[in-house]
Amino acid sequence: MIRINTLRLPLSNLSSFSSQSQKSRPSYCTMMNYTKAASSQAFNNKKLLLRQLFEKESSTYTYLLADVAHPDKPALLIDPVDKTVDRDLSLVRELGLKLIYAINTHVHADHVTGTGLIKTKVPSVKSIISKAGKAKADLLVEAGDQIHFGDLFLEVRATPGHTPGCLTYVTGDGPDQPQPRMAFTGDALLIRGCGRTDFQIFSLPKETFIYPAHDYRGFTVSTVGEEMQYNPRLTKDEEMFKSIMENLNLPYPKMIDIAVPLNMVCGLQDLPVKPGDASSN
Ligand SMILES: N[C@@H](CCC(=O)N[C@@H](CSS)C(=O)NCC(=O)O)C(=O)O
Ligand SMILES: [Fe+2]
């Protein structure tokens, strides 16, 4: 069981999340929270800093989140790419944040994760990935876990389908957490598309923002409601969905033979072993 800043919650019914707290919350915006992606949406939270970063070769989004109301400004990165680690760490420094977690939504096939490289540059950072993915990381999480940074947290949802260990990280539900909620969906749900998806993300409130790991057409953010209505794959019945997914005709990912073995070990071939350190990376 993960205990470092992480609290296990038994969630037997993943569809039981309520949007109760949203109804009683005032609506206000702050420039502190301005991001390209969120600028056209209501974004009523004073604590969360969110930046959506892009790696163009693999069309991957990396997300930087921080609790900027907390004195330490603790931060985390979701799906960092090895090629853009220096850019991401510069931004963390410029914003005066303390990076504590480097997180993957799944074992990527199209790029090498930056989590291992980040740990060589900022050794206090802990890497996180799904227990079900069978990859190495400092902390292995599963559905119901919470990843805390300052007074904010991400809830872990299992969204297998694209890979067996795919996770979606959802901002916490509660009076002090950002509203509407945001779901960082990895490749399980893309905007108007999907990797190889399940349907658990759609049990979230319709106004929940969707932040995927990739976009191939220039979209940056969507909502659960929009995808339920307009996603051309997930609005079909099961037979049609299967037929669409079997006929995508996507090329074999260029990086897959390099990326997958490396991503099983945080993106590093030979991890530096520190004395007294058992196996973590
Ligand atoms: N051409 C790219 C790989 C593109 C690809 O296969 N994307 C994956 C997500 S990355 S594992 C996917 O599921 N795409 C769904 C879609 O509809 O595009 C490469 O060679 O790397
Ligand atoms: Fe993927």
Keywords summarizing the entry:
281 residues, alpha/beta, Metallo-beta-lactamase, Chain A, 6 helices, globular, binds the ligand N[C@@H](CCC(=O)N[C@@H](CSS)C(=O)NCC(=O)O)C(=O)O, binds fe (ii) ion, metal ion binding, acetylation, iron, sulfur dioxygenase activity
User: Uncertain runs with pLDDT below 50, 5 residues or more?
Assistant: 1-44, 277-281
Integer count of domains: 1
Instruction: Please indicate the percent range of residues in DSSP E strands (runs of 2 or more).
Output: 15-25%
Structural class: alpha/beta
Could you tell me the CATH topology label. Metallo-beta-lactamase, Chain A
Choose one word for the global shape: globular
GO cellular component, one term: mitochondrion
Cofactor: Fe(2+)
Main location: mitochondrion
Protein name: persulfide dioxygenase
Explain this structure to me?
The protein is an alpha/beta fold and 281 residues long. The protein has one domain: 4-Layer Sandwich (Metallo-beta-lactamase, Chain A), CATH 3.60.15. Helix content is 16%, strand content 23%. The protein contains six helices and 13 strands. It has helices at residues 20-23, 85-94, 115-121, 224-230, 238-246, 256-263, and strands spanning 6-8, 48-55, 60-67, 74-78, 98-103, 126-130, 139-141, 145-149, 152-158, 167-171, 182-186, 209-212, 222-223. The strands form two sheets. It has a seven-stranded mixed sheet with strand order 1-8-9-10-11-12-13. Strands 2-3-4-5-6-7 form a six-stranded mixed sheet, covered by helices on one side. The radius of gyration is 18 Å and the shape is globular. The two termini are 18 Å apart. 44% of the residues are buried. Mean pLDDT is 83; it is low at 1-44 and 277-281. Bound molecules: ligand L3IBWBLD and fe (ii) ion. Residues 106, 108-109, 162, 187, 195 line the site of fe (ii) ion (FE2).
